[in-house]
Amino acid sequence: MRVVNLLAFNNVRFGYRHNGKTVMSDVSVGIKPGSVTAILGPNGAGKTTLLKLALGRLQPHEGQILLNGKALESYSRRDLGRWMGLVPQGEHLPYDYSLLEYVVLGRAPYLKPLEMPGEADCQAAKQALDNVGLGSYQNRPVTRLSGGEQQMVLVARALAQQPKLLLLDEPTAHLDLKNKYKLIELLRKLVAQGVTILFTTHEPEIASILATDLVLIRDGQIVHTGTLDDTLTGDRLSDAYQMPVKVMKIDGHQLVIWS
Questions:
Q1: What is the pLDDT of residues 247-256, one digit of tens each?
Q2: What is the distance in angstroms between the CA of the first residue and the CA of the last residue of the chain?
Q3: In this predicted model, what pLDDT tens digit does every residue of 99-119 receive, in sequence order?
Q4: Nearest-CA neighbor of 66 among 57, 56, 81, 79?
Q5: For residue 10, is it left (φ>0), alpha (ψ between -120 and 50) or beta?
Q6: In what order do the strands lie in the sheet with 165-169?
Q7: What integer pLDDT is reported at residue 233 of this predicted model?
Q8: Cα–Cα distances in Å, from 232 out to 207, 208, 251?
Q9: I need a surface site. Which of 19, 213, 220, 224 has the fewest CB within 10 A?
Q10: Is 253 exposed, middle or buried (0-12, 13-18, 19+ CB in 10 A)?
């Protein structure tokens, strides 16, 4: 039986109207349920744009995006918020929220207009903070956290949405080694619970550790897509990054090197 992609881009083209420049052209890729897919490519390749299209924050000029087999535009914003959660690279916070107050904002898709969060919403937010290791800090202002801790709070807010598909934009970019490990272990647990993961990165090493599938992107075009083993090769990475790259296996792990 053919598996329906949880998320699918079909011949998608996109450009920003203010300058008329096409930044995505003829993009076709499918995200399988239960997969961990890395969108890998150099800075400026279009990785973040691809996530914004997936979220419906940008609309393609041509082609179609499907979520669970239905056109993305047929979903309400509230329904999309229950399906997908986003962890951005960072976020400016104009108010001095406590961690719990901030994370409970992730419950918005489950609330009616002007409805206050209830006990179940607060419990979901507390569980999300526990999952990222910040449960004991729930009353601390978010402005008093380190950069790495603030990134983990963004993860907690997305988890409070209880999404079926979790999107992360360069999730390890601001994390030290310990927090990178914590995040990777958390994402593995989420996959075991049935959550599908789609994340962008410019670090091949992070993709090799976490991803089951890989989308290589350069200049707004898909260079190659497939399983990690098939796609994370020296030739394909050299093509994507336009520089000599080698991939070696050491103790069963893939090591990416360049010269």
A1: 888 777 778 8
A2: 45
A3: 999 999 999 999 998 899 999
A4: 56
A5: beta
A6: 84-87, 165-169, 196-201, 36-40, 213-218, 221-227
A7: 92
A8: 9, 8, 17
A9: 19
A10: exposed
